């Protein structure tokens, strides 16, 4: 594709935000927005076809109007067998901020529940935050650029929108349910080449996320590695993401334990590694008459959440002197050696907050 056609489409939609009105009729700016959304949806469909991104399986639809208009329009790319509606499943979606300041390309999920005889937005922040955390832990063994450079949270600027509380809650839910995202500010919109690469990366992660949920075996899961080049773009120096080998996962684990041990030795503790004993923690530290138990987690990502086993959760709840050490942003080189030993985050003492805990293995939301 020549030029920056996607940036032009994004800008046209964002610039209409200042003329927003929720009125469902006689509303020329929003009718124009609908036309722009449809044109952009068609361009995305063409991109999927031209780049062989499973256009025969994935579908594109736009939204932002339910009777009246919403201040946050969207376009989603989805596997119809996994996410037949925008209310459930996982999908990749463009979300346009209510004030026209930016557009996000987000790996997101349904945020509604059946309540009072209708599909309504979920009202519990922790439910959505923990669902997003569980999604990230489900693809924890995939390294990707978006997991490092994407924003921790997306801001769709919906709090001051001229709509009712339920519509504002719906916008808030898009933010809370974000798994990973790229942000494109209106004054720094992406080139077509960059947008295509970002989209490919999130589609790989969508495939990985669906693959982690084996309840439904869809055509997308069966055919993506065969019909596209995405599955081959898993080498360390590509941004599309790649699945970490068992060797690399073990290397990350050992690197994290090394860093944790060095830190506590520097504080005067004697340190014994006991992870292989499956006691519910990794390091036993002693100093004078004190004994401290430490759980250690290493990741190539930001460390927003960690995976805990039931035994680790049980031990943390039962033992008073616990600490959690997270080593994030560990960088693995092309030859599968560690080129950056990552950043150290210490939670000492560590008391599990039940509202951050999602029973999966468990997924524990750190922040």
Q: What's the short version?
A:
The chain has 367 residues and is an alpha+beta fold.
Record keyword descriptors for this entry.
single chain; 367 residues; Metal Transport, Frataxin, Chain A; Trna Endonuclease, Chain: A, domain 1; 2 domains; five-stranded antiparallel sheet
Number of domains: 2
Roughly how many Å is the radius of gyration?
22 Å
The CATH architecture of the largest domain is 2-Layer Sandwich
Count the beta strands: 19
| Assigned CATH class of the largest domain | Alpha Beta
Order of helices and strands: HHEEEEEEHEHHEHHEHEEEEHEEEEEE
The whole-number mean of residue pLDDT values reads 87
> Kindly, what is the distance between the CA atoms of the first and last residues, rounded to a whole number of angstroms?
41 Å
Uncertain residue ranges? 226-240
> What is the topology, as strand order, of the major beta sheet?
1-2-3-4-8
CATH topology of the largest domain: Metal Transport, Frataxin, Chain A
User: Which oligomerization state do the chains in this entry correspond to?
Assistant: single chain
Number of helices: 9
**Strand share of the residues?**
25-35%
Helicity, as a percent range: 25-40%
Based on Cα principal axes, name the global outline: elongated
The biggest beta sheet reads: 5 strands, antiparallel
* Helix-and-strand structural type: alpha+beta
């Amino acid at each position: 594709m020549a030029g920056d056609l996607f940036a032009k489409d994004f800008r046209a939609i964002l610039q209409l935000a200042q003329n927003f009105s929720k009125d469902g009729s006689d509303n020329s700016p929003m009718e124009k927005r609908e036309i722009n959304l449809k044109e952009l949806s068609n361009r995305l469909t063409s991109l999927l076809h031209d780049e062989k991104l499973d256009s025969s399986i994935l579908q594109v639809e736009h939204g932002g109007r339910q009777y009246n208009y919403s201040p946050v329009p969207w376009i989603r790319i989805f596997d119809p067998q996994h996410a037949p509606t925008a209310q459930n499943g996982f999908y990749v979606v463009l979300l346009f901020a209510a004030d026209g300041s930016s557009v996000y390309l987000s790996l997101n999920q349904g945020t509604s529940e059946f309540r009072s005889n209708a599909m309504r937005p979920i009202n519990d922040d922790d439910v959505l935050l923990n669902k997003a955390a569980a999604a990230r832990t489900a693809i924890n063994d995939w390294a990707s650029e978006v997991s490092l450079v994407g924003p921790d949270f997306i801001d769709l600027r919906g709090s001051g929108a001229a709509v009712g509380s339920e519509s504002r809650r719906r916008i808030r839910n898009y933010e809370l349910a974000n798994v990973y995202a790229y942000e494109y500010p209106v004054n720094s919109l992406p080139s077509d080449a960059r947008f295509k690469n970002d989209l490919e990366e999130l589609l790989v992660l969508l495939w990985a996320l669906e693959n982690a949920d084996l309840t439904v075996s869809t055509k997308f899961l069966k055919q993506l590695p065969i019909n596209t080049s995405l599955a081959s773009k898993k080498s360390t120096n590509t941004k599309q993401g790649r699945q970490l080998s068992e060797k690399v996962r073990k290397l990350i684990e050992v690197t994290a334990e090394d860093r944790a041990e060095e830190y506590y030795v520097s504080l005067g503790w004697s340190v014994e590694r006991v992870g292989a004993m499956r006691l519910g923690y990794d390091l036993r530290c002693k100093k004078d008459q004190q004994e401290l138990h430490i759980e250690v987690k290493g990741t190539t990502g930001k460390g927003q959440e960690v995976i805990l086993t039931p035994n680790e959760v049980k031990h943390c709840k039962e033992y008073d002197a616990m600490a959690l050490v997270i080593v994030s942003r560990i960088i693995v080189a092309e030859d599968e050696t560690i080129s950056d030993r990552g950043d150290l985050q210490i939670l000492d003492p560590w008391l599990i907050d039940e509202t951050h805990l999602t029973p999966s293995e468990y997924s524990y939301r750190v922040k």
